Amino acid sequence: AEWPLRPGTREEMEVSLKKAVLGKAFKKQSGTVTAAIQALSDDEKRAMKQTLESDTFKLKVGDVSFEITPEMVGEVKSVSRTEHVREYVPSVIEPSFGIGRILYCILETNFKVRESDEKRTWLDLPPLIAPTKCSVLPLSSNPAFEPFIKELSAALRKLGIPNKVDDSSGAIGRRYARTDEIGIPFGITVDFDTVKLQTVTVRERNSCSQIRVQMEEVAGLIHKLCSEQLTWDQAKQMYPEFTAQQTIES
């Protein structure tokens, strides 16, 4: 890269070498030695000049050491050069880093496939960055579930938890899969036990495991899970695990 400058002078150390003497001493390696000497910093060139006044100079190129004698060096002096452009090598090149790249990295990193079924994909978005934190799913289109769905959605909104009600037709398993695909970390299911016992199930996206929780506690539980005040493993210790066979059917 180039950095335009106003014309000015710059002091630098210049080394003139006796190429015939270098060639005789180092033969095929004389070019390597010459390039290494010219690549020395100004301070290193000054140190070499001082050393050569009374001794030989040890030049190290990689793992090989070369002995430079005073006869090989013509002169080491300070010269003034006029600069119009200064060349430099940037340590970091990042021409663009917008929100698009950040989102792409998040999606690519968190895209997963279920080991048991390659057709089932899911987004492993952490609850803190998931746009929708929780889904509310009635087990069926039974009208008795409607008041509970509205109550749950309102309780979640009151705590600032973005949620999505999925009361579409289809098996509950397919609806779980749809919420997994868009990265919703938790799902609340309203079933017949909700009507009879005032409890709901809470499902965790990554493990697909479920627990049963009292209606009045579930919004607070989701809030703690999404804000990382509580882990899913801790929640499983606090509430009974749920399996589909445990549901009381009307």
Can you characterise this structure?
It is built from 9 helices and 12 strands. It is of the alpha+beta class and 250 residues long. The strands form 4 sheets. Strands 8-7-9-10-11-12 form a 6-stranded mixed beta sheet, with helices on both faces. A two-stranded antiparallel ribbon has the order 1-4. The chain has a two-stranded antiparallel ribbon with strand order 2-3. The radius of gyration is 36 Å and the shape is rod-shaped. 20% of the residues are buried.
- What is the count of β-strands? 12
**Residue-averaged pLDDT, rounded?**
89
Specify the overall morphology. rod-shaped
How would a crystallographer describe the biggest sheet?
6 strands, mixed
Which spans of ≥5 residues are poorly predicted at pLDDT below 50? Answer: none
Total helical segments: 9
Percent helix, as a range, is 25-40%
Instruction: Tell me the distance between the termini.
Output: 75 Å
Class derived from helix and strand content: alpha+beta
Q: Please state the CA-atom Rg, rounded to the nearest Å.
A: 36 Å
The strands making up the biggest β-sheet line up spatially as 8-7-9-10-11-12
What fraction of the residues are assigned to beta strands by DSSP? 25-35%
**Series of H and E elements:** EHHHEEEHEEEHEHEHEEHHE
